[in-house]
User: Which sequence fits this backbone?
């Protein structure tokens, strides 16, 4: 038995928002792979929950008329990875969520829960950050659109008010079109493990594939929140693809991170991973884009 | 009537008496409580019982074709020595169902990936992979006939 106090049942998003407005202290329950475990471990005893797991209007992925990819928050990791729109236009996101847990966890865990949890190791968050996702946040007061870049306020803290719900994650067309990404998760085990470090890189190359039009690099567990590396991204803009450039990118990212020492890994090791994974993921992304590293 | 605070594993083992459901870790890490919900493996310990309404739940008990007769995958676990203490076995077998029902032959690495959410502290896994691999091959051959 789970030791929660009240479980409010929402049968629609409108009802869920009304329940949240009436009970702002209650937590939205999506797949439960974080919340139910915290309850089991006694860390949320007596909590009130609003059950939104059954709300299919919050589930699914579609390519919108404006070319943006809309991911509803209750979409499971399995469904993200298997979805034809993701496979065709944003395969790196599927590859990233496929590194989470095991099959059972990927069937229950949701992408919205992964980012609302606000931890720096969230595998989906790192890639969404690298693709400049925007978030649709709703409450009984209306809807607001927030760049994902502004969502994480600190470790485990996100910009969601007590009456708000994440209703959509959007990747604009300009963000995924002609863009190729690669995600590397460094962890102790190949499954059922949390990232020691995560690195998601995507590139858009020039027409002749000789130069980088746009580079975006994001890291997980390199700071209290998932972070980008503006220094490396600025440095790479318009540059010819050479090994020297790759090395410069590896050095530049170190200026944008602040990893901590934890039982999983020390700060020094994480800094080494950050430099090395940035280079490897950049090379892989360039290869996927059809480019080659010139000597 | 079920208690709204029940997990699916509480309901299946406690209320329905389905003893194949093992309370292993109870936090979604060991896979000993794995059941298929609408054909996909889930940890029933971190799934609210009320979420199961209207869904098709398959447990190990449901694999027997007739009363007392076990299925091919269960027999393969016995034949290959994939069972030692047995606590993890029902979960492994349920996690293997999507693999053995697939027409695409899985490599050993793919099988390992599919059962990565299940822990076994006895066998060292190799015999479990053997049992799944052989059953999948046998099923594909049978379907081709």
Assistant:
């Amino acid at each position: 038995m789970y030791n929660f106090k009240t479980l409010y049942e929402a049968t629609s998003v409108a009802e869920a928002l009304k329940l949240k407005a009436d009970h702002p202290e209650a937590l939205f329950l999506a797949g439960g792979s974080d919340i139910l475990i915290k309850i089991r471990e006694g860390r949320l005893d007596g909590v009130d929950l609003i059950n939104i797991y059954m709300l299919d209007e919050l589930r699914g992925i579609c390519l919108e008329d404006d070319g943006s990819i809309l991911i509803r928050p209750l979409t499971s990791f399995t469904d993200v990875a298997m979805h034809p729109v993701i496979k065709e236009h944003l395969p790196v996101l599927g590859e990233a969520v496929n590194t989470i847990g095991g099959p059972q966890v990927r069937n229950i865990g949701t992408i919205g829960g992964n980012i609302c949890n606000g931890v720096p190791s969230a595998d989906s968050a790192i890639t969404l950050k690298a693709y400049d996702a925007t978030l649709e946040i709703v409450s009984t007061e209306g809807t607001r659109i927030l760049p994902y870049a502004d969502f994480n306020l600190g470790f485990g803290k996100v910009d969601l008010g007590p009456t708000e719900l994440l209703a959509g994650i959007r990747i604009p067309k300009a963000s995924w079109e002609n863009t190729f990404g690669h995600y590397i998760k460094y962890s102790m085990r190949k499954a059922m493990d949390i990232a020691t470090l995560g690195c998601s890189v995507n590139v858009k190359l020039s027409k002749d594939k000789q130069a980088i039009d746009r580079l975006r690099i994001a890291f997980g567990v390199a700071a209290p929140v998932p972070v980008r590396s503006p220094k490396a991204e600025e440095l790479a803009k318009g540059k010819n693809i050479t090994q020297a450039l790759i090395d410069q990118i590896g050095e530049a990212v170190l200026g944008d991170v602040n990893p901590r020492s934890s039982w999983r890994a020390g700060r020094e090791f994480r800094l080494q991973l950050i430099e090395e994974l940035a280079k490897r993921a950049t090379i892989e992304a360039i290869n996927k884009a059809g480019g080659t590293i010139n000597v | 009537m079920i208690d709204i605070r029940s997990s699916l594993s509480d309901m299946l083992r406690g209320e329905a008496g389905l003893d194949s459901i093992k309370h292993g870790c109870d936090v979604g890490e060991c896979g000993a409580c794995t059941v298929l919900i609408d054909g996909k493996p889930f940890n029933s310990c971190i799934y609210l019982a009320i979420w199961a309404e209207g869904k098709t739940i398959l447990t190990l008990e449901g694999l027997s074709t007739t009363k007392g007769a076990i299925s091919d995958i269960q027999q393969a676990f016995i034949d290959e020595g994939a069972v030692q203490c047995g606590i993890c076995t029902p979960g492994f077998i349920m996690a293997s169902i999507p693999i053995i029902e697939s027409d695409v032959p899985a490599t050993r690495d793919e099988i390992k990936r599919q059962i990565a959410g299940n822990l076994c502290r006895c066998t060292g896994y190799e015999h479990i992979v053997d049992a799944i691999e052989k059953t999948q091959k046998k099923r594909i051959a049978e379907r081709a006939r």
In short: Chain B touches chain A at residues 3-7, 10, 26-29, 31, 34, 37, 40-43, 46-48, 50-51, 95, 113-118 (CB under 8 Å).
